[in-house]
Amino acid sequence: MNRLLSTSILFTLFILLSGCTLNSNVAQLYKQEPNLDAEITLDDSISTKEEQTIEILLTKDGNPVDQVDNIHVEIWKQDGSIPTIHKIPDNRGNGKYQLTTSFSSEGLYFIKAHIKHQDSEIIPKQQFIVGELSDNDLEYLQKDIPEQERSHDHHH
Amino acid sequence: MLSSKNRQQKQKQASNYKLFWRWHFYAGLIISPFLLILAITGSIYLFKPQIEQIIYQDYYEVTPEGDRIPPSQLMEKVKNEYPNAVITAYRPGEDATRSSEFHITMDDQSSTIFIDPYSGKSLGKLNNEDRIMDKIEEFHGELMAGTLGDRIVELAACWAIILIVTGLYMWFPRNKLRISGVLVPRLTSKKRILRRDLHVVPAFWITAGMLFLILTGLPWSGFWGTNFQTVTTNLGNGYPPSVWVGNAPTSQIETKDIAEVPWAAETLDVPKSDIQGRVPVSIDDIVAIADREGVHSSYTLYLPQENTGVYTLSAFPPKAQDEITMHIDQYSGKVLADYRYDNYGSIGKVVAWGITLHKGTQFGFINQLISLFICIGIVFVALSGLYLWWKRKPDDGLGAPKAPPIYSMKLFFILIIGLGLTFPLVGLSIIFVYLIDRFVIRKISKLRNFFHA
Protein backbone atom coordinates (compact mmCIF):
# COMPACT_ATOMS: atom_id res chain seq x y z
CA MET A 1 0.00 0.00 0.00
CA ASN A 2 2.68 2.46 1.03
CA ARG A 3 4.63 1.81 -2.10
CA LEU A 4 1.57 2.40 -4.25
CA LEU A 5 0.88 5.64 -2.43
CA SER A 6 4.40 6.97 -2.68
CA THR A 7 4.51 6.10 -6.37
CA SER A 8 1.34 8.06 -6.99
CA ILE A 9 2.70 10.98 -4.95
CA LEU A 10 5.81 11.05 -7.09
CA PHE A 11 3.81 10.77 -10.29
CA THR A 12 1.49 13.59 -9.29
CA LEU A 13 4.40 15.82 -8.33
CA PHE A 14 6.07 15.01 -11.64
CA ILE A 15 2.99 16.10 -13.56
CA LEU A 16 2.66 19.23 -11.44
CA LEU A 17 6.25 20.29 -11.82
CA SER A 18 6.66 19.42 -15.46
CA GLY A 19 3.96 22.06 -16.29
CA CYS A 20 3.50 22.05 -20.05
CA THR A 21 4.80 24.70 -22.39
CA LEU A 22 3.70 25.48 -25.89
CA ASN A 23 5.86 24.21 -28.75
CA SER A 24 7.50 27.07 -30.59
CA ASN A 25 6.34 26.03 -34.06
CA VAL A 26 2.89 24.93 -32.99
CA ALA A 27 1.23 27.43 -35.36
CA GLN A 28 2.21 25.15 -38.25
CA LEU A 29 -0.35 22.63 -37.03
CA TYR A 30 -3.13 25.11 -37.74
CA LYS A 31 -4.31 27.24 -40.65
CA GLN A 32 -1.52 29.12 -42.43
CA GLU A 33 -1.83 32.44 -44.21
CA PRO A 34 -0.24 33.24 -47.58
CA ASN A 35 3.03 35.07 -47.10
CA LEU A 36 2.86 38.07 -49.44
CA ASP A 37 5.44 40.82 -48.92
CA ALA A 38 6.24 44.10 -50.56
CA GLU A 39 9.35 46.19 -50.16
CA ILE A 40 9.11 49.81 -51.21
CA THR A 41 12.42 51.42 -52.17
CA LEU A 42 13.03 55.15 -52.45
CA ASP A 43 16.25 57.17 -52.50
CA ASP A 44 17.63 58.08 -49.10
CA SER A 45 17.52 61.74 -49.93
CA ILE A 46 14.86 63.16 -52.21
CA SER A 47 14.74 66.71 -53.47
CA THR A 48 12.08 68.76 -55.19
CA LYS A 49 14.37 69.28 -58.20
CA GLU A 50 14.56 65.84 -59.73
CA GLU A 51 12.20 63.03 -60.61
CA GLN A 52 12.05 60.16 -58.19
CA THR A 53 11.77 56.51 -59.16
CA ILE A 54 9.99 54.33 -56.64
CA GLU A 55 10.32 50.58 -56.83
CA ILE A 56 8.17 47.95 -55.20
CA LEU A 57 9.48 44.40 -54.94
CA LEU A 58 6.67 41.94 -54.51
CA THR A 59 7.36 38.44 -53.20
CA LYS A 60 5.39 35.48 -51.97
CA ASP A 61 7.27 33.10 -49.70
CA GLY A 62 10.43 34.77 -50.99
CA ASN A 63 9.63 34.22 -54.69
CA PRO A 64 8.95 37.17 -57.01
CA VAL A 65 5.32 37.74 -57.94
CA ASP A 66 4.76 38.87 -61.53
CA GLN A 67 1.01 38.51 -61.72
CA VAL A 68 -0.98 40.77 -59.46
CA ASP A 69 -4.72 41.24 -59.44
CA ASN A 70 -4.31 44.83 -58.41
CA ILE A 71 -1.51 47.22 -57.59
CA HIS A 72 -2.01 50.89 -56.91
CA VAL A 73 0.05 53.46 -55.08
CA GLU A 74 -1.12 56.42 -53.03
CA ILE A 75 1.23 59.24 -52.00
CA TRP A 76 0.20 62.13 -49.78
CA LYS A 77 1.76 64.86 -47.76
CA GLN A 78 1.47 64.96 -43.97
CA ASP A 79 0.16 68.52 -43.85
CA GLY A 80 -2.33 67.90 -46.66
CA SER A 81 -0.98 70.86 -48.65
CA ILE A 82 -0.95 68.98 -51.96
CA PRO A 83 -3.60 66.66 -53.40
CA THR A 84 -3.03 62.92 -53.02
CA ILE A 85 -1.10 61.34 -55.91
CA HIS A 86 -2.55 58.08 -57.27
CA LYS A 87 -0.37 55.97 -59.58
CA ILE A 88 -0.39 52.51 -61.04
CA PRO A 89 3.21 51.29 -61.24
CA ASP A 90 4.57 49.50 -64.31
CA ASN A 91 5.30 45.82 -64.12
CA ARG A 92 9.03 45.44 -64.82
CA GLY A 93 9.09 41.67 -64.35
CA ASN A 94 10.83 39.61 -61.70
CA GLY A 95 8.46 40.93 -59.04
CA LYS A 96 9.49 44.54 -59.63
CA TYR A 97 6.95 47.33 -60.06
CA GLN A 98 8.10 50.87 -60.79
CA LEU A 99 6.74 54.37 -60.92
CA THR A 100 8.23 57.82 -61.33
CA THR A 101 6.93 61.00 -59.83
CA SER A 102 8.16 64.40 -58.76
CA PHE A 103 7.49 66.45 -55.67
CA SER A 104 6.83 70.14 -55.78
CA SER A 105 7.05 70.90 -52.10
CA GLU A 106 9.30 69.83 -49.22
CA GLY A 107 8.20 68.02 -46.12
CA LEU A 108 7.01 64.71 -44.72
CA TYR A 109 5.26 62.32 -47.11
CA PHE A 110 3.53 58.98 -46.91
CA ILE A 111 3.36 56.25 -49.49
CA LYS A 112 0.91 53.37 -49.31
CA ALA A 113 0.65 50.60 -51.88
CA HIS A 114 -2.56 48.63 -52.30
CA ILE A 115 -1.69 45.18 -53.56
CA LYS A 116 -4.01 42.25 -54.20
CA HIS A 117 -2.67 38.87 -55.23
CA GLN A 118 -4.98 35.85 -55.21
CA ASP A 119 -6.44 35.60 -51.68
CA SER A 120 -4.22 38.12 -50.01
CA GLU A 121 -4.26 41.86 -49.84
CA ILE A 122 -1.59 44.04 -48.29
CA ILE A 123 -1.21 47.77 -47.80
CA PRO A 124 2.43 48.45 -46.91
CA LYS A 125 2.96 52.01 -45.73
CA GLN A 126 6.12 54.09 -45.40
CA GLN A 127 7.03 57.65 -44.59
CA PHE A 128 9.74 59.63 -46.32
CA ILE A 129 11.12 63.13 -46.43
CA VAL A 130 11.43 65.41 -49.43
CA GLY A 131 13.99 68.14 -48.78
CA GLU A 132 13.62 69.21 -45.18
CA LEU A 133 10.94 68.70 -42.54
CA SER A 134 8.78 71.63 -41.52
CA ASP A 135 8.13 72.52 -37.87
CA ASN A 136 4.62 71.25 -38.38
CA ASP A 137 6.02 67.89 -39.54
CA LEU A 138 8.26 67.62 -36.51
CA GLU A 139 5.37 68.38 -34.22
CA TYR A 140 3.34 65.70 -35.97
CA LEU A 141 6.12 63.11 -35.62
CA GLN A 142 6.52 63.86 -31.94
CA LYS A 143 2.84 64.06 -31.04
CA ASP A 144 2.71 60.64 -29.43
CA ILE A 145 5.69 61.25 -27.18
CA PRO A 146 4.36 61.94 -23.69
CA GLU A 147 4.50 65.64 -22.81
CA GLN A 148 6.99 65.40 -19.93
CA GLU A 149 9.45 63.29 -21.96
CA ARG A 150 9.62 65.71 -24.87
CA SER A 151 12.91 67.55 -25.12
CA HIS A 152 12.80 71.23 -24.22
CA ASP A 153 16.13 72.16 -25.79
CA HIS A 154 14.65 74.93 -27.90
CA HIS A 155 14.10 77.16 -24.87
CA HIS A 156 17.72 78.21 -24.70
CA MET B 1 -23.13 -22.61 2.90
CA LEU B 2 -25.02 -20.43 0.51
CA SER B 3 -26.37 -18.21 3.24
CA SER B 4 -22.94 -17.59 4.72
CA LYS B 5 -21.64 -16.57 1.32
CA ASN B 6 -24.62 -14.31 0.98
CA ARG B 7 -23.98 -12.79 4.35
CA GLN B 8 -20.36 -12.16 3.46
CA GLN B 9 -21.40 -10.40 0.31
CA LYS B 10 -23.91 -8.30 2.23
CA GLN B 11 -21.23 -7.31 4.71
CA LYS B 12 -18.85 -6.37 1.95
CA GLN B 13 -21.57 -4.31 0.33
CA ALA B 14 -22.32 -2.52 3.57
CA SER B 15 -18.69 -1.70 4.17
CA ASN B 16 -18.30 -0.43 0.60
CA TYR B 17 -21.34 1.72 1.14
CA LYS B 18 -19.78 3.20 4.24
CA LEU B 19 -16.60 3.94 2.39
CA PHE B 20 -18.45 5.89 -0.29
CA TRP B 21 -20.54 7.56 2.36
CA ARG B 22 -17.48 8.69 4.31
CA TRP B 23 -15.88 10.26 1.25
CA HIS B 24 -19.14 11.83 0.18
CA PHE B 25 -19.65 13.11 3.71
CA TYR B 26 -16.29 14.87 4.08
CA ALA B 27 -16.09 16.09 0.51
CA GLY B 28 -19.62 17.45 0.76
CA LEU B 29 -18.98 19.19 4.05
CA ILE B 30 -15.89 20.97 2.72
CA ILE B 31 -17.01 21.60 -0.85
CA SER B 32 -20.65 22.61 -0.43
CA PRO B 33 -19.92 26.26 0.57
CA PHE B 34 -17.91 26.69 -2.61
CA LEU B 35 -20.54 24.98 -4.72
CA LEU B 36 -23.08 27.40 -3.24
CA ILE B 37 -20.90 30.38 -4.16
CA LEU B 38 -20.29 29.06 -7.69
CA ALA B 39 -23.96 28.31 -8.29
CA ILE B 40 -25.19 31.65 -6.97
CA THR B 41 -22.60 33.86 -8.70
CA GLY B 42 -22.99 31.72 -11.81
CA SER B 43 -26.73 32.19 -11.98
CA ILE B 44 -26.29 35.96 -11.79
CA TYR B 45 -23.46 36.02 -14.32
CA LEU B 46 -25.59 34.00 -16.74
CA PHE B 47 -27.74 37.06 -17.24
CA LYS B 48 -24.85 39.45 -17.77
CA PRO B 49 -26.03 40.56 -21.25
CA GLN B 50 -29.49 41.55 -20.01
CA ILE B 51 -28.23 43.06 -16.75
CA GLU B 52 -25.53 45.18 -18.42
CA GLN B 53 -27.97 46.27 -21.12
CA ILE B 54 -30.13 47.76 -18.37
CA ILE B 55 -27.53 49.26 -16.04
CA TYR B 56 -25.33 50.65 -18.82
CA GLN B 57 -28.09 51.72 -21.17
CA ASP B 58 -26.84 55.32 -21.22
CA TYR B 59 -23.39 54.14 -22.21
CA TYR B 60 -24.52 51.57 -24.76
CA GLU B 61 -27.34 53.07 -26.78
CA VAL B 62 -26.89 55.55 -29.61
CA THR B 63 -29.22 56.85 -32.31
CA PRO B 64 -27.84 56.43 -35.83
CA GLU B 65 -27.64 59.81 -37.57
CA GLY B 66 -25.78 60.23 -40.84
CA ASP B 67 -22.37 58.69 -41.39
CA ARG B 68 -20.12 57.20 -38.77
CA ILE B 69 -17.01 59.19 -37.87
CA PRO B 70 -13.83 57.28 -38.83
CA PRO B 71 -12.32 55.51 -35.80
CA SER B 72 -9.01 57.37 -36.23
CA GLN B 73 -10.85 60.64 -35.55
CA LEU B 74 -12.69 59.16 -32.59
CA MET B 75 -9.34 58.00 -31.26
CA GLU B 76 -7.93 61.54 -31.57
CA LYS B 77 -10.85 62.79 -29.48
CA VAL B 78 -10.13 60.21 -26.79
CA LYS B 79 -6.43 61.12 -26.84
CA ASN B 80 -7.27 64.78 -26.40
CA GLU B 81 -9.67 64.07 -23.58
CA TYR B 82 -7.30 61.68 -21.76
CA PRO B 83 -3.79 62.78 -22.73
CA ASN B 84 -2.11 60.52 -20.17
CA ALA B 85 -4.01 57.39 -21.13
CA VAL B 86 -2.69 54.51 -23.21
CA ILE B 87 -5.34 53.34 -25.64
CA THR B 88 -5.25 49.56 -25.75
CA ALA B 89 -8.28 48.59 -27.80
CA TYR B 90 -11.18 49.79 -29.92
CA ARG B 91 -14.57 48.16 -30.22
CA PRO B 92 -16.78 49.54 -33.00
CA GLY B 93 -20.06 48.14 -31.63
CA GLU B 94 -21.98 45.18 -33.00
CA ASP B 95 -24.90 47.06 -34.52
CA ALA B 96 -26.00 50.52 -35.60
CA THR B 97 -27.48 51.45 -32.23
CA ARG B 98 -24.51 50.35 -30.11
CA SER B 99 -21.90 52.88 -29.02
CA SER B 100 -18.21 52.47 -29.83
CA GLU B 101 -15.69 51.79 -27.09
CA PHE B 102 -12.07 52.61 -26.46
CA HIS B 103 -10.26 50.66 -23.79
CA ILE B 104 -7.62 52.64 -21.99
CA THR B 105 -5.21 52.23 -19.12
CA MET B 106 -4.46 55.26 -17.03
CA ASP B 107 -2.79 55.44 -13.61
CA ASP B 108 -2.69 51.63 -13.47
CA GLN B 109 -6.44 51.46 -13.98
CA SER B 110 -8.27 49.94 -16.91
CA SER B 111 -11.37 51.66 -18.10
CA THR B 112 -13.69 51.87 -21.04
CA ILE B 113 -14.63 55.10 -22.83
CA PHE B 114 -18.00 54.98 -24.57
CA ILE B 115 -18.42 57.23 -27.56
CA ASP B 116 -21.23 57.99 -30.00
CA PRO B 117 -19.76 57.12 -33.43
CA TYR B 118 -22.22 59.46 -35.20
CA SER B 119 -21.76 62.63 -33.16
CA GLY B 120 -18.35 61.88 -31.66
CA LYS B 121 -19.79 62.75 -28.27
CA SER B 122 -18.29 60.96 -25.29
CA LEU B 123 -20.93 59.01 -23.37
CA GLY B 124 -18.79 58.50 -20.31
CA LYS B 125 -16.07 56.41 -18.77
CA LEU B 126 -16.43 53.23 -16.74
CA ASN B 127 -13.64 51.82 -14.60
CA ASN B 128 -13.45 48.08 -15.18
CA GLU B 129 -13.00 47.63 -11.45
CA ASP B 130 -16.32 49.28 -10.77
CA ARG B 131 -18.28 47.02 -13.10
CA ILE B 132 -20.48 44.80 -11.01
CA MET B 133 -20.47 41.96 -13.53
CA ASP B 134 -16.67 41.93 -13.55
CA LYS B 135 -16.78 41.56 -9.79
CA ILE B 136 -19.23 38.68 -10.04
CA GLU B 137 -17.03 37.01 -12.65
CA GLU B 138 -14.01 37.43 -10.40
CA PHE B 139 -15.96 35.91 -7.54
CA HIS B 140 -17.12 33.02 -9.71
CA GLY B 141 -13.70 32.36 -11.19
CA GLU B 142 -11.36 33.08 -8.31
CA LEU B 143 -13.37 34.03 -5.22
CA MET B 144 -11.81 37.52 -5.50
CA ALA B 145 -8.58 35.95 -4.26
CA GLY B 146 -6.43 35.86 -7.37
CA THR B 147 -4.44 32.73 -8.12
CA LEU B 148 -5.17 31.10 -4.77
CA GLY B 149 -8.89 31.62 -5.35
CA ASP B 150 -8.61 30.20 -8.84
CA ARG B 151 -6.98 27.04 -7.48
CA ILE B 152 -9.64 26.71 -4.78
CA VAL B 153 -12.43 26.98 -7.34
CA GLU B 154 -10.70 24.40 -9.50
CA LEU B 155 -10.28 22.10 -6.53
CA ALA B 156 -13.92 22.49 -5.55
CA ALA B 157 -15.01 21.71 -9.10
CA CYS B 158 -12.85 18.59 -9.24
CA TRP B 159 -13.96 17.41 -5.83
CA ALA B 160 -17.54 17.90 -6.96
CA ILE B 161 -16.85 15.11 -9.45
CA ILE B 162 -15.95 12.86 -6.52
CA LEU B 163 -19.18 13.95 -4.84
CA ILE B 164 -21.11 12.97 -7.95
CA VAL B 165 -19.46 9.57 -8.23
CA THR B 166 -19.87 8.66 -4.57
CA GLY B 167 -23.37 10.12 -4.51
CA LEU B 168 -24.47 8.10 -7.52
CA TYR B 169 -23.15 4.92 -5.93
CA MET B 170 -25.23 5.52 -2.83
CA TRP B 171 -28.25 6.58 -4.84
CA PHE B 172 -28.29 3.43 -6.94
CA PRO B 173 -30.95 1.11 -5.49
CA ARG B 174 -29.25 -1.96 -4.04
CA ASN B 175 -32.09 -4.40 -3.70
CA LYS B 176 -34.59 -4.03 -6.44
CA LEU B 177 -35.32 -1.27 -8.86
CA ARG B 178 -37.97 1.05 -7.57
CA ILE B 179 -39.16 4.51 -8.45
CA SER B 180 -40.03 6.16 -5.14
CA GLY B 181 -36.98 7.28 -3.25
CA VAL B 182 -34.95 6.95 -6.44
CA LEU B 183 -36.63 8.97 -9.14
CA VAL B 184 -39.40 10.55 -7.07
CA PRO B 185 -39.12 11.61 -3.44
CA ARG B 186 -41.31 9.77 -0.93
CA LEU B 187 -43.39 12.69 0.23
CA THR B 188 -45.71 10.82 2.56
CA SER B 189 -43.11 8.94 4.55
CA LYS B 190 -41.39 9.74 7.78
CA LYS B 191 -39.40 12.94 8.17
CA ARG B 192 -36.08 11.10 8.16
CA ILE B 193 -36.83 9.49 4.83
CA LEU B 194 -38.24 12.68 3.36
CA ARG B 195 -35.07 14.58 4.31
CA ARG B 196 -32.98 11.91 2.63
CA ASP B 197 -35.13 11.88 -0.49
CA LEU B 198 -35.09 15.66 -0.80
CA HIS B 199 -31.32 15.50 -1.12
CA VAL B 200 -30.89 12.29 -3.08
CA VAL B 201 -33.63 12.51 -5.68
CA PRO B 202 -33.04 16.11 -6.89
CA ALA B 203 -29.29 15.45 -6.78
CA PHE B 204 -29.76 12.58 -9.20
CA TRP B 205 -31.83 14.73 -11.53
CA ILE B 206 -29.29 17.53 -11.74
CA THR B 207 -26.21 15.28 -11.84
CA ALA B 208 -25.80 15.39 -15.60
CA GLY B 209 -26.19 19.17 -15.72
CA MET B 210 -23.83 19.70 -12.82
CA LEU B 211 -21.20 17.45 -14.34
CA PHE B 212 -21.61 19.32 -17.62
CA LEU B 213 -21.05 22.70 -15.95
CA ILE B 214 -17.98 21.34 -14.13
CA LEU B 215 -16.42 19.81 -17.23
CA THR B 216 -17.13 22.86 -19.41
CA GLY B 217 -15.83 25.18 -16.69
CA LEU B 218 -12.57 23.35 -16.08
CA PRO B 219 -10.87 24.27 -19.40
CA TRP B 220 -10.76 27.92 -18.28
CA SER B 221 -9.35 27.21 -14.88
CA GLY B 222 -5.91 28.61 -14.25
CA PHE B 223 -3.98 25.45 -13.55
CA TRP B 224 -5.68 22.42 -15.05
CA GLY B 225 -7.28 24.47 -17.81
CA THR B 226 -4.09 26.16 -18.93
CA ASN B 227 -2.24 22.85 -19.03
CA PHE B 228 -5.12 21.17 -20.82
CA GLN B 229 -5.23 23.94 -23.42
CA THR B 230 -1.45 23.77 -23.87
CA VAL B 231 -1.49 20.02 -24.41
CA THR B 232 -4.38 20.07 -26.89
CA THR B 233 -2.91 23.05 -28.77
CA ASN B 234 0.44 21.25 -28.97
CA LEU B 235 -1.28 18.17 -30.35
CA GLY B 236 -2.97 20.20 -33.06
CA ASN B 237 -6.40 19.29 -31.68
CA GLY B 238 -7.12 22.34 -29.58
CA TYR B 239 -7.44 26.03 -30.10
CA PRO B 240 -4.81 27.44 -32.48
CA PRO B 241 -2.07 29.29 -30.56
CA SER B 242 -2.94 32.76 -29.21
CA VAL B 243 -6.68 32.04 -29.07
CA TRP B 244 -6.29 30.75 -25.51
CA VAL B 245 -2.67 29.90 -24.77
CA GLY B 246 0.33 31.24 -26.63
CA ASN B 247 1.29 34.68 -27.85
CA ALA B 248 0.20 36.52 -30.93
CA PRO B 249 2.72 36.42 -33.78
CA THR B 250 5.06 39.40 -34.03
CA SER B 251 5.52 41.69 -36.96
CA GLN B 252 7.91 40.29 -39.55
CA ILE B 253 9.24 43.71 -40.45
CA GLU B 254 12.86 44.18 -39.42
CA THR B 255 13.40 46.83 -36.77
CA LYS B 256 15.87 48.72 -38.93
CA ASP B 257 13.16 49.27 -41.56
CA ILE B 258 10.78 50.84 -39.08
CA ALA B 259 10.60 54.63 -38.98
CA GLU B 260 11.85 56.09 -35.71
CA VAL B 261 10.36 58.94 -33.77
CA PRO B 262 12.72 61.94 -33.78
CA TRP B 263 13.73 63.20 -30.35
CA ALA B 264 15.43 66.33 -31.62
CA ALA B 265 13.82 69.66 -30.95
CA GLU B 266 14.81 71.29 -34.25
CA THR B 267 13.98 69.98 -37.67
CA LEU B 268 17.59 70.48 -38.75
CA ASP B 269 18.80 68.04 -36.07
CA VAL B 270 16.57 65.24 -37.25
CA PRO B 271 18.49 62.29 -38.74
CA LYS B 272 16.45 61.75 -41.89
CA SER B 273 17.35 58.17 -42.67
CA ASP B 274 16.02 57.04 -39.27
CA ILE B 275 12.74 58.81 -39.81
CA GLN B 276 12.17 57.29 -43.22
CA GLY B 277 10.77 53.81 -43.21
CA ARG B 278 7.82 51.65 -42.39
CA VAL B 279 5.00 53.21 -40.42
CA PRO B 280 1.86 51.59 -39.00
CA VAL B 281 -1.23 51.62 -41.15
CA SER B 282 -4.10 53.49 -39.57
CA ILE B 283 -6.86 52.02 -37.45
CA ASP B 284 -9.27 52.93 -40.29
CA ASP B 285 -7.37 50.59 -42.61
CA ILE B 286 -7.64 47.78 -40.10
CA VAL B 287 -11.38 48.35 -39.71
CA ALA B 288 -11.67 48.15 -43.50
CA ILE B 289 -9.76 44.84 -43.42
CA ALA B 290 -12.12 43.54 -40.73
CA ASP B 291 -15.09 44.36 -42.98
CA ARG B 292 -13.41 42.83 -46.02
CA GLU B 293 -12.61 39.59 -44.16
CA GLY B 294 -16.10 39.29 -42.70
CA VAL B 295 -15.11 39.50 -39.05
CA HIS B 296 -18.10 39.23 -36.70
CA SER B 297 -19.29 42.76 -35.92
CA SER B 298 -18.84 42.34 -32.16
CA TYR B 299 -15.07 42.32 -32.53
CA THR B 300 -12.57 44.18 -30.39
CA LEU B 301 -9.46 45.53 -32.07
CA TYR B 302 -6.37 45.38 -29.85
CA LEU B 303 -3.76 47.95 -30.81
CA PRO B 304 -0.07 47.09 -31.01
CA GLN B 305 1.76 48.53 -28.01
CA GLU B 306 5.28 48.18 -29.34
CA ASN B 307 7.31 48.14 -32.54
CA THR B 308 7.02 44.41 -33.05
CA GLY B 309 3.38 44.17 -31.98
CA VAL B 310 0.44 43.37 -34.23
CA TYR B 311 -3.17 44.47 -34.53
CA THR B 312 -5.40 41.73 -33.13
CA LEU B 313 -9.06 41.42 -34.01
CA SER B 314 -10.93 39.19 -31.65
CA ALA B 315 -14.58 38.34 -31.32
CA PHE B 316 -16.17 35.87 -28.94
CA PRO B 317 -19.84 36.39 -29.72
CA PRO B 318 -22.70 34.39 -28.17
CA LYS B 319 -22.37 31.50 -30.62
CA ALA B 320 -19.15 29.49 -30.79
CA GLN B 321 -19.31 29.20 -34.59
CA ASP B 322 -18.85 32.99 -34.95
CA GLU B 323 -15.58 33.20 -32.99
CA ILE B 324 -12.54 34.72 -34.59
CA THR B 325 -9.00 35.72 -33.67
CA MET B 326 -7.07 37.53 -36.39
CA HIS B 327 -3.59 39.03 -36.26
CA ILE B 328 -2.61 41.74 -38.70
CA ASP B 329 0.86 43.16 -39.32
CA GLN B 330 0.80 46.81 -38.25
CA TYR B 331 3.08 48.00 -41.08
CA SER B 332 1.54 46.19 -44.04
CA GLY B 333 -1.99 45.19 -43.14
CA LYS B 334 -0.97 41.62 -43.94
CA VAL B 335 -3.13 39.00 -42.27
CA LEU B 336 -0.63 36.95 -40.26
CA ALA B 337 -3.16 34.56 -38.77
CA ASP B 338 -6.87 34.14 -39.21
CA TYR B 339 -8.30 31.60 -36.79
CA ARG B 340 -12.01 30.96 -36.88
CA TYR B 341 -14.11 28.26 -35.30
CA ASP B 342 -13.63 26.09 -38.40
CA ASN B 343 -9.87 26.25 -37.91
CA TYR B 344 -10.02 24.96 -34.34
CA GLY B 345 -8.97 21.38 -33.71
CA SER B 346 -11.69 18.90 -32.76
CA ILE B 347 -11.13 19.35 -29.01
CA GLY B 348 -10.95 23.12 -29.49
CA LYS B 349 -14.39 23.04 -31.11
CA VAL B 350 -15.85 21.01 -28.25
CA VAL B 351 -14.29 23.35 -25.67
CA ALA B 352 -15.60 26.40 -27.55
CA TRP B 353 -19.12 24.98 -27.53
CA GLY B 354 -18.71 24.04 -23.88
CA ILE B 355 -17.82 27.61 -23.03
CA THR B 356 -20.72 29.24 -24.83
CA LEU B 357 -23.12 26.67 -23.35
CA HIS B 358 -21.62 27.19 -19.88
CA LYS B 359 -22.07 30.95 -20.25
CA GLY B 360 -25.60 30.43 -21.46
CA THR B 361 -25.12 32.37 -24.68
CA GLN B 362 -25.10 29.61 -27.32
CA PHE B 363 -28.87 29.14 -27.44
CA GLY B 364 -29.89 32.46 -25.94
CA PHE B 365 -32.65 32.74 -23.37
CA ILE B 366 -33.58 29.04 -23.26
CA ASN B 367 -29.91 28.22 -22.64
CA GLN B 368 -29.85 30.72 -19.78
CA LEU B 369 -33.00 29.22 -18.27
CA ILE B 370 -31.69 25.65 -18.37
CA SER B 371 -28.40 26.73 -16.78
CA LEU B 372 -30.27 28.74 -14.17
CA PHE B 373 -32.35 25.66 -13.37
CA ILE B 374 -29.18 23.59 -12.86
CA CYS B 375 -27.72 26.31 -10.63
CA ILE B 376 -30.85 26.45 -8.50
CA GLY B 377 -30.72 22.66 -8.33
CA ILE B 378 -27.11 22.77 -7.11
CA VAL B 379 -28.02 25.30 -4.43
CA PHE B 380 -30.95 23.14 -3.32
CA VAL B 381 -28.92 19.94 -3.24
CA ALA B 382 -26.00 21.56 -1.38
CA LEU B 383 -28.40 23.02 1.19
CA SER B 384 -30.47 19.86 1.59
CA GLY B 385 -27.25 17.89 1.99
CA LEU B 386 -26.04 20.19 4.73
CA TYR B 387 -29.49 20.06 6.37
CA LEU B 388 -29.47 16.28 6.22
CA TRP B 389 -26.12 16.23 7.98
CA TRP B 390 -27.20 18.82 10.57
CA LYS B 391 -30.31 16.86 11.48
CA ARG B 392 -28.54 13.52 11.74
CA LYS B 393 -25.31 14.52 13.39
CA PRO B 394 -24.75 13.53 17.01
CA ASP B 395 -24.00 16.25 19.56
CA ASP B 396 -20.45 15.11 20.20
CA GLY B 397 -18.86 14.87 16.76
CA LEU B 398 -19.30 15.33 13.05
CA GLY B 399 -21.18 12.10 12.66
CA ALA B 400 -19.03 10.77 9.87
CA PRO B 401 -19.54 7.10 9.14
CA LYS B 402 -16.65 4.91 10.17
CA ALA B 403 -15.33 3.18 7.09
CA PRO B 404 -12.71 0.65 6.12
CA PRO B 405 -9.50 1.99 4.55
CA ILE B 406 -9.89 3.15 0.98
CA TYR B 407 -7.70 0.48 -0.59
CA SER B 408 -10.01 -2.24 0.76
CA MET B 409 -12.18 -1.54 -2.26
CA LYS B 410 -10.05 -1.78 -5.37
CA LEU B 411 -12.43 -0.18 -7.82
CA PHE B 412 -12.91 2.92 -5.70
CA PHE B 413 -9.21 3.13 -4.96
CA ILE B 414 -8.35 3.00 -8.65
CA LEU B 415 -11.03 5.57 -9.38
CA ILE B 416 -9.62 7.99 -6.81
CA ILE B 417 -6.05 7.47 -8.02
CA GLY B 418 -7.30 8.02 -11.58
CA LEU B 419 -9.04 11.26 -10.62
CA GLY B 420 -5.97 12.32 -8.65
CA LEU B 421 -3.80 11.86 -11.69
CA THR B 422 -6.21 13.46 -14.15
CA PHE B 423 -6.62 16.42 -11.82
CA PRO B 424 -3.27 16.81 -10.07
CA LEU B 425 -4.70 19.37 -7.68
CA VAL B 426 -7.13 16.72 -6.43
CA GLY B 427 -4.25 14.28 -6.14
CA LEU B 428 -2.28 16.78 -4.11
CA SER B 429 -5.24 17.54 -1.87
CA ILE B 430 -5.82 13.81 -1.26
CA ILE B 431 -2.17 13.39 -0.32
CA PHE B 432 -2.49 16.39 1.97
CA VAL B 433 -5.57 14.94 3.68
CA TYR B 434 -3.86 11.56 3.96
CA LEU B 435 -0.82 13.10 5.66
CA ILE B 436 -2.97 15.11 8.06
CA ASP B 437 -4.98 12.02 8.87
CA ARG B 438 -1.92 9.82 9.29
CA PHE B 439 0.24 12.15 11.33
CA VAL B 440 -2.13 14.49 13.14
CA ILE B 441 -5.64 13.15 13.54
CA ARG B 442 -4.67 9.59 14.38
CA LYS B 443 -2.16 10.76 16.97
CA ILE B 444 -4.59 12.86 18.96
CA SER B 445 -7.44 10.90 20.48
CA LYS B 446 -9.82 13.85 20.74
CA LEU B 447 -9.50 14.53 17.02
CA ARG B 448 -9.73 10.83 16.33
CA ASN B 449 -13.08 10.61 18.03
CA PHE B 450 -14.33 13.80 16.45
CA PHE B 451 -13.51 12.69 12.90
CA HIS B 452 -14.34 9.04 13.55
CA ALA B 453 -10.97 8.17 12.11
From TrEMBL, chain A:
<dbReference type="Pfam" id="PF13115">
    <property type="entry name" value="YtkA"/>
</dbReference>
<dbReference type="InterPro" id="IPR032693">
    <property type="entry name" value="YtkA-like_dom"/>
</dbReference>
<feature type="domain" description="YtkA-like">
    <location>
        <begin position="32"/>
        <end position="114"/>
    </location>
</feature>
<keyword id="KW-0732">Signal</keyword>
<protein>
    <recommendedName>
        <fullName>YtkA-like domain-containing protein</fullName>
    </recommendedName>
</protein>
<feature type="signal peptide">
    <location>
        <begin position="1"/>
        <end position="23"/>
    </location>
</feature>
